[in-house]
Amino acid sequence: MSNSADGRSVTSKLAAILRTFSAGSVHSLSDIARSANLPVSTAHRLATELAEWGFLERTDDRRYRIGTLMSHIASRTWHEPNIQEHARWVLEDLSAATRATVRLGILDDLAVSYIEKRPGTAPAPTVFEARTLPAHATAMGKALLAFCGPDAVNAVIDNGLDQYTPFTIVTAQGLRRAVAITRMTQVATTRQELCLNTAAVAVPVFAGGGNVVAALEITVGGAGCQLHLIQSAVVVAARALSRELTANQCRNRSSRLAVVHGSGPWVPDPRSASMAVSHFATAGDRTAG
User: Fold this and answer.
1) Which residue intervals of 99-227 are DSSP H helices?
2) What is the spatial distance between Cα 195 and Cα 36, in angstroms, rounded to a whole number?
3) Who contacts 191 (Cβ-Cβ below 8 Å, separation ≥6)?
4) pLDDT tens-digit profile of 136-172?
5) From its phi and psi, is residue 149 left (phi > 0), alpha (psi between -120 and 50) or beta?
6) Which of 16, 149, 169, 275 could form a disulfide with 36 if both were Cys (CB 3.0 to 4.6 A apart)?
7) What angle (nearest 5°) sits at the alpha carbon of residue 210, between those of residues 268 and 50?
8) Are 197 and 221 in contact (CB under 8 A)?
């Protein structure tokens, strides 16, 4: 793009605006203008264009946050290949501790791609399933939609809310309410919404900048299952994985700097996040009893 009167290209101005959101926060127009060193009028024009393209999103109080497109790009970047390798160990330990099916999902074209570990089966895969699950009928789908903004929710609604059981949410109002509750609590649940006699609880997984890159879900049999008994396990596991991904991102940045200065790269330990959930093996025994 051509340079403007102040000598800065439009590209550099857009980059400065997006850099304002590197901490994953919500910012007012004046915050953006000050951080990007731009006149308020210029910041308003460019932020509006970024919002139209989905890079940013307007909040109800007329501020800006990261938009659906940026969140999608972030999640696609993170899940290849880092998140699978780190999550595999967490899925293994969490499934063994709770004796339940554990999944890690990402949004992919309005549905949920996932990796899955069932108790007593082969090790968790490191490649996401070719098949997908519906976002509106799964706990991990709701956990992901809650942090993707209204555009993603509207797109799922416009695509049609298929009914899988008599308990599936099939109305726009119902889905928006479920997503709003999930955003407040950071916990999503389903009871018999995808399959009868099953229940699930899911928690978002965050990475650097506070962006949600995946959701961790436990699915159990029995419509009357007391989900709070397993909720603490998935919350701890998701937080541990979030810390590991964030730390790994910071270490990768430090590693790149170290290479520039002549020292060797840091090699992450993929099992460090799983250690945070290992104590649930005995907790699971007590719960099962």
Assistant:
1) 139-145, 150-158, 172-185
2) 49
3) 167, 199, 223
4) 999 999 999 999 878 889 999 999 999 999 999 999 9
5) left
6) 16
7) 120
8) yes
Which pair of structure tokens corresponds to residue 278?
Answer: 């290992």
Hey, which residues does 65 pair with through a beta bridge? 57
Which residue has tokens 């416009």? 158
Q: Looking only at Cα atoms, what is the longest distance across the chain? A: 73
Q: Which tokens belong to 27?
A: 């910012």
d(CA 126, CA 86): 9
Q: Is the pTM of this model over 0.85?
A: no
For residue 30, give every residue at least 6 positions away whose Cβ sits within 8 Å of its Cβ, in sequence order, or none.
40
Per-residue pLDDT tens digits for 165-216:
999 999 999 999 999 999 999 999 999 999 999 999 999 998 876 788 899 9
What 3-state class would DSSP assign to 162?
Answer: coil
- Please report the domains of the chain, with CATH numbers, ordered by start residue: 10-66 (1.10.10.10), 73-288 (3.30.450.40)
